[in-house]
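Work package 3, deliverable 3.1, input record:
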Amino acid sequence: MKAHLTRRYMFSASHRLHSDALSAEENRATYGKCNNPYGHGHNYALEVTVSGQVQPSTGMVCDLADLDDFVKREILDRFHLENLNTLPEFGGSVPTTETLCIALYDILQRGFTPAHLEKVRLEETMMNSFEYAGQGEPIH
Amino acid sequence: MVYLTRKAEFSASHYYHNPEFTPEENQRVFGKCNNANGHGHNYTLEVTVKGEVNPRSGFVVDLKQLKEILHSEVLEALDHRFLNKEVPEFAAQIPTTENLAIAIWRRLAPKLKAAQLHRVRVYETPDLFVDFYGEA
C-alpha cells in the first residue's frame, strides 16, 4: 500500500538577486528591491514529500528520524542562517527560490535513500511558494 | 473535473508497538512513541473528492452529505478515542499516520456516491502529514 509522507522544516537565510550577465540597470529592472547590494533574508519553509509502500512491520513509509537526520545534516546545518550567495550550490547562479528549490531537491534526490523523493515545496514567504518534482515531472 | 476538499479535526491517542518485535526493537524503532500508555494528537483530516459539476445543482458533491458521511464514518469512530484499543482496524495494525490515512480511505470510499474519492490527507501535526490516493 503506497502512501506519501510530507514533513515540514523551517530555516532562515539571506540572499541577493543579482546576475553578472546583466547590467546594473537591467539587474535593477529585473530584481527590484531584491537587487539591493547588501542582501535581505527570509524565513523559508521547506516541505519534503517522500513515498513508498507502508511497511507492515512498522506501519511507516520510512523512519521519520532518518529523514529528519538527513535534512538536518545536509540542508538545515548548511543553509540555516547562511548567505545563500556564498554557498557552492549557487556558484555563478542567482539564488532565487526557484533555484534553491531545485538545489534542495537535488540534495535529497542524490542522498536520501530510505524512500522515494516525490517533490520539494518551498515557501519563501507566506505569500509565495515553489514546487519541484524533478526535470519534466508534473506536480500532483 | 473539479476537486473539492473538506476539512475536519479530531483528537485521539495512540502508541506504536509491534508484538513481533522484542522490547528493545520496539524501543529502537518507535522511540518515545512506544510508551504503552499512549500519547495524543490533534489530527486534521482533509478529504478531497473529484467529479464533474452537476449542471442542475452546480455541485461536485452535496457538502452536507459529505459532512454527514465524514461525521458518521470517521469522526464518530476516531474522535477522543485511544486508537489502539477502540478502533477495530488497529487491533492488529500499528496506528501510524500512514495506516490512519488508509483506514479513513477504506471507511469513506464505499460510502461516496456522486463524487469519487481522490485523496485522504491526515495531518498528525502541522509539520507532518500523509497523503493516500487509493489502493494502487
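DSSP finds three helices and five strands in chain A.
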